[in-house]
Design a protein that fits this description.
The protein is mainly α. It has one domain. 56% of the residues lie in helices and 0% in strands.
């Protein structure tokens, strides 16, 4: 997977995915890039509300032990090449949950993206590309969602 380039960060959806992963990494207490060194996107999709939601979710609601056990149950724990499979399975779990949730469940979507970012951060020690894989994965998922589905995508320039 390609690394994150500065020109990617000018893309609204890509920057959203990058900022989301950076927030998860920060909540985990790991080193992140300073956002003031990054180019400003056309529209800022990742808001402080999203950051607060992620922080609350990871600190108060998220059971990392459950996700760790889930990852190990997928038998991919020692095979980093299966990272995209894990992210797809996590996304698939959310999509199946969406059948019972309102179509505009932005909070559920953000929390699922946080889980995907957590998987990327989780595997970062085994593969330095894991975080950028998570950014790319979330970006691709965002591009597949109709612009009016979530309120934050309404500001998108696509």
């Amino acid at each position: 997977m390609a690394r994150i380039l500065r020109r990617h960060l000018s893309d609204d959806e890509y920057r959203f995915a990058y900022d989301l992963v950076a927030e998860v990494v920060a909540v985990r207490g790991e080193l992140t890039y300073a956002s003031e060194r990054l180019p400003t996107p056309n529209n800022i999709l990742f808001t402080q509300q999203h950051a607060d939601l992620i922080r609350d979710f990871l600190v108060n609601q998220f059971q990392s032990q459950e996700l760790d056990a889930w990852i190990k149950s997928k038998r991919c724990y020692y095979d980093i090449t299966q990272l995209k499979y894990l992210m797809t399975a996590c996304k698939g779990h959310y999509i199946s949950d969406l059948l019972t949730l309102p179509l505009d469940d932005e909070q559920g979507f953000i929390c699922t993206c946080a889980k995907i970012a957590y998987i990327g951060a989780y595997f970062h020690q085994k593969n330095r590309k894991a975080r950028s894989e998570a950014v790319h994965f979330i970006h691709e998922w965002l591009l597949s969602i109709p612009p009016g589905r979530f309120s934050f995508l309404a500001a998108s320039s696509r």
